[in-house]
Amino acid sequence: MAEQDLVKILESIAGYLEIEKRSGVNCFMRxxxxxxxIDLLKKIAxxxxxxxxxxxxxxxxxxxxxxxxxxxxxxxxGEAPGExxxxxxxxxxxxxxxxxxxxxxxxxxxxxxVYITNVLKCHPPxxxxxxxxxxxxxxxxxxxEIEIINPRVICALGKFANLALSRKEIPxxxxxxxxxxYEGIKVIPTFHPAYLLRNPxxxxxxxxxxxxxxxxxxxxxxxxxTTLIGV
Length: 231
Ligand code: URA
Ligand code: SF4
Hints:
There is one protein chain. By secondary structure, the protein is an alpha/beta fold. The chain has one domain (3-24, 34-220): Uracil-DNA Glycosylase, subunit E, CATH 3.40.470.10. It contains nine helices and six strands, in the order H-H-E-E-H-H-E-H-E-H-H-E-E-H-H. The protein has a six-stranded mixed β-sheet with strand order 1-3-2-4-6-5, sandwiched between helices. Strand 5 (180-182) and strand 6 (185-190) form a beta hairpin. The longest helix has 28 residues, at 203-230. Residues 23-28 and 225-231 have low confidence and may be disordered. The structure holds uracil and iron/sulfur cluster (SF4). Uracil (URA) binds at residues 78-82, 85, 91-92, 94, 96-97, 118, 194. Iron/sulfur cluster binds at residues 48, 51-54, 56-57, 63, 120-122, 134, 137-138.
């Protein structure tokens, strides 16, 4: 084999592996147009990178776009990047992020198998709560992420994730675990991991909510395999 051909083959394998790596390396990715979704998500990330739609662009260090599997069945939706996320430019990498990672693993998944994002893509100074103008200004990016990924379920973490999707200000203590729809996609509200760190007594009820997330994914998978067998 000519050296040039070998180089070409190696380059294409390297490219393929890079895509797999970025998308969580899952066998269920095979046969899907992964690159197309990555490109669509990249386009939003580019728009976010230059965004000045609210004043948070003035104080952010790095924008924090979503990350994970573009074919994720579950989106975990947080509120806004914290200080550590602002420094690193990645969602949920601080203390709350460590708990979220543990939760994902306890559900039998890896971080790379799901998609993790926030309502706001820029860190609010002093970790203050997002203002409704900021949620509205930023919402189009989240809407586009959800449209592209089209997950089976969104796990909305905390008050602001739920406010953004449901447009209703229901206290989470009443709303958690109660499924609703966002654009036809099931949403399970639960407590934010940062809240669970401060209120560990709520971990038990959060776990009940999270089990519902997995049940939804499984329920749909079963339906799919039944249909496939029937074809
Ligand atoms: N809290 C969030 O809501 N999102 C993050 O990315 C980190 C902490
Ligand atoms: Fe733009 Fe959202 Fe950042 Fe505001 S928070 S500047 S709307 S990306």
